[in-house]
Prior knowledge:
Blueprint: H1 8-13, E1 27-33, H2 41-50, E2 55-59, H3 61-66, H4 68-76, E3 80-83, H5 96-107, E4 114-115, H6 124-131, E5 135-136, E6 141-142, H7 152-162, E7 168-172, H8 179-192, E8 196-197
Parallel strand pairs: 1-2, 1-7, 1-8, 2-3, 4-5, 6-7
Helix pairs in contact: 2-8, 5-6, 7-8
The structure holds zinc ion (ZN).
Amino acid sequence: MRFFRPLLLAKLFYPDAVFRIRTSEKILYLTFDDGPDPGSTPLILEILEQKNAKAVFFCNGKAAEAYPALVGTIRKQGHMVGNHCYDHLNGWRTSNDRYCNEVDRASVFTSDRIFRPPYGRMKQQQYRLLRRKYKIFMWDLMSYDYDRNFGAQRTLNAVKSKMRPGSVIVFHDKPSSSSFLMLRDFLEFSAARGYRFDIPAF
Ligand SMILES: [Zn+2]
């Protein structure tokens, strides 16, 4: 079973986290996780540029350290870089000290302001420690673009039918993602319905 919206429990566990941005305007907040990747991030950037869309890239610290020029290009094109931990740790399986250290380690190469936990998983204590330093950024709509069994067409249909004003939508800029196949269509569809694509003001 796929959950496109976060479970209510997540909102109770992480009460100060951002799931959806309150607005009456037709604005969508696109996010791309797990990059930067030299084989896929430039393609995503090109599509976003063509469609005049801004996004947040929640970068893997290790990859950001390896490809600083790519992180620079993301920023130069007006997008925001977020922190997605150094090496994609699952908070539930990691000690609090190690987890928080790895997020701080990634902040040098990504962001010291905005953090998205890999898999959306943090223990309560990790959340409490990290929220003092970072705005914790979850999502309103998971696209499942990383799931090969789901496929690009179903990803496209899902985001089209479930997006709403202020939605924070998760995509991925990694080679296995189907976002390359459906992103252009999705941006055109949304723009035709009056939506624009912005970055949050944090
Ligand atoms: Zn991730």
